[in-house]
Structures are given as structure tokens and as C-alpha cells.
Amino acid sequence: MNMMTLWHISGWEFAALALAALLVGFSKTAVSGANTVSLAVFAAVLPARASTGVLLPLLIAGDTFAVLTYRRHAHWPTLWRLFPAVAAGVVAGTLFLARVGDGIVRVSIGVILLMMTGITLWRRRQEATEDVSTRTGRATAGAYGVMGGFTTMVANAGGPVMSMYLLSAGFRKMGFLGTSAFFFLIVNVAKIPFSAALGLIDGNSLLLDAALLVFVVPGAFLGRWAVHKINQRLFDRIVIVATVVGAVELLLT
Q1: Rounded CA gap, 40 and 134, in Å?
Q2: Domain membership flag for residue 159
Q3: Secondary structure string (H, E, C) spanning the chain
Q4: I need a surface site. Which of 23, 48, 189, 242 has the fewest CB within 10 A?
Q5: How many CB atoms lie within 10 A of CB 7?
């Protein structure tokens, strides 16, 4: 795999990755959309394709912590409704990733994230939430599911897409966190064989993960503390702003 090993990363580069790993933990227990900043940092320090394989085990560690923290708040009907579409998106993302270069991946994900943010802001201005029991609601869930699976496979960037869906569906803070925690733990674990088959996970990537894992845990504790200090309106705004920032970084990286 075309990537730098732990021994070839400079002190400054490792510090940037460590800070991004801290943010992984924080995003999983506080603000999901903030995770796009982490993937942008990883893509800047490491080869973009290889960075997705390094980041995946760290995301799973953060997901596990989030599930342990918010497991009682998950809304399983929403999860079961999303999974089939997400599976289709993961397959499409795998095929896409096998055929295109890093530049196209970044631009595609950045554009999708900005589009999803724009749609969500428009819907919130209309004071509308998506009733998932209707035909339109099921179609919307399917569209977000496919895009979530696609973006999480090609760039670990499914967080903002699903954040936009959960906000548009009217989820409150704790339901948002519990549902997204289970969603991403299941999806990210399911991505492991696809990533391994593409050569994105190997011994070198796992060695780097072992060195960075220690930074995910304090980030998760920090997020768990911070989430109780944030009111619902501020929470929604932070999610949206973090999504836009991450999308712009992908387009400019």
C-alpha cells in the first residue's frame, strides 16, 4: 500500500494525526460532523486513499465508546430503514474507490456534503421535518442511506451526511447521538473486509493505529463532558458548521 509508516512520519505530522485522533473521539460523543476535519487532516498527512484505511480502526474505537455511552437513546426503526440503502452505497463506494484517483474522491465528497447541508438548511427554514413513515420519508431515507454508505466507504465521510438526515428527521440531541453511534459502529465494522480487499488496511496501517489509539479515548471523554454543556440549538448549528468546514477542506485539500 502506498503510505508512510510510523517510522517515516515527522514529529509535526504525528502531532497533527494525534490531534485529529483526539477529534475522532470527540466527534463520536459530541458533534458527529466535526469528524470531517479529522479525515481532512489524515488525507493531508498521508496519501489520501491510504488515510481511509488508517482512520477506519480509530473510528471504530470511537464508535464503540459512543455506543457504550448513548446505547439507550438509539432509535432502531430508523436504523433498520437505513441499512439496506447504506449497503448499496458501500458497494457503490467500493467500486468507485477502485477506479478513481484521490482528487476525484475529494471533490465528489465535498460537493455531496455541501449539497446535503444546503438541502437541510432549506428544510429547516421551511420548519419541516421528514416523516419517515410516509412514502416520501422512506425515499428520503433511502437517498441519504445510499449517499451515507457511499461517502463513508470512499472517504470515511458518512458522518455529515447522516447528521444532515437525522437533523432533517427532527432527532433531538441524545436520540441523534445514540442512533448515529450504533449506525456507524455497525457500518464501519462491515467496511473492514472491503477496505482490506482494496489494500487500505495492512500491518503498517495497524501499527500507526496502535500509536494513535491512545488519543481517541481522551477525546471521547471530552466529548461526553462537553455534550451536556451544549443546548439543542447550539448543537444543531455546530453540526452544520462542522459539516461545511469539513466539506470545504475536502475541496481545497
Answers
A1: 36
A2: yes
A3: CCCCCHHHCCHHHHHHHHHHHHHHHHHHHCCHHHHHHHHHHHHHHCCHHHHHHHHHHHHHHHHHHHHHHHHHHCCHHHHHHHHHHHHHHHHHHHHHHHHCCHHHHHHHHHHHHHHHHHHHHHHHHCCCCCCCCCHHHHHHHHHHHHHHHHHHHHHCCHHHHHHHHHHHCCCCHHHHHHHHHHHHHHHHHHHHHHHHHCCCCCHHHHHHHHHHHHHHHHHHHHHHHHHCCCCHHHHHHHHHHHHHHHHHHHHHC
A4: 189
A5: 8
Q: Look at 110-114, 118-122, 158-162 and tell me which has the smallest mean pLDDT.
A: 118-122
Structural domain boundaries, residue 166: 10-252
Of 157, 155, 117, nearest to 36 by C-alpha is 157
Residue 18 lies in a domain: yes
CA angle centred on 230, ends 61 and 122, rounded to 5°: 95
Q: Is residue 55 part of a domain?
A: yes
Q: How many structural domains compose the chain?
A: 1
Cα separation, 180 vs 75, in Å, equals 9
pLDDT digits (tens, 9 = 90+) for 169-215: 778 888 888 998 999 999 999 999 998 998 889 888 899 999 999 99
